[in-house]
Amino acid sequence: MGMTITEKILAAHAGKESVVPGDNIWVDVDVLMTHDVCGPGTFAIFKKQFGENAKVWDRDKVVIIPDHFIFTKDTHANRNIDILRQFVKEQSLPHYFDVGTDRYKGVCHLALAQEGFNRPGEVLFGTDSHTSTSGAFGMFSTGIGNTDAAFILGTGKLWVKVPESMCFEFTGTFPEHVMAKDVILNVIGDIGVDGATYRAMEWRGDAVMSLSMEERMTLCNMAIEAGGKNGIIEADEVTTNYVQQRTDAPYKIYKSDKDAQYIFKKTYNASEMEPIVAKPHSPDNKAKVSECVDVKLDRAYIGSCTGGKLTDFMAAARLLKGKKVKIDTFIVPATREVEQDLYKEKIGGETLVDIFKNAGAYLGDPSCAACLGGPQDTFGRAKDNQVVISTTNRNFPGRMGSKQSYVYLASPYTAAASALTGHITDPAEFIYN
Amino acid sequence: MNKVIEGVAYVLGNDVDTDQIIPAEHLVYSLSDPEERKNYGKFAMSGVPADQAGLPDGKIPFTENGQSESKYSIIIGGRNFGCGSSREHAPACMEIAGVRAVVAESYARIFYRNSVDGGFFIPFESVKCMVKEIKTGDNLVIDLNKSTLTNRSSNKIYELKSLGEVIEIIEAGNIFEYARKTGMIPSA
Question: Which of A51, A334, A363, B64 can bridge A308 by disulfide, Cβ–Cβ 3.0-4.6 Å?
Answer without folding.
Answer: A334
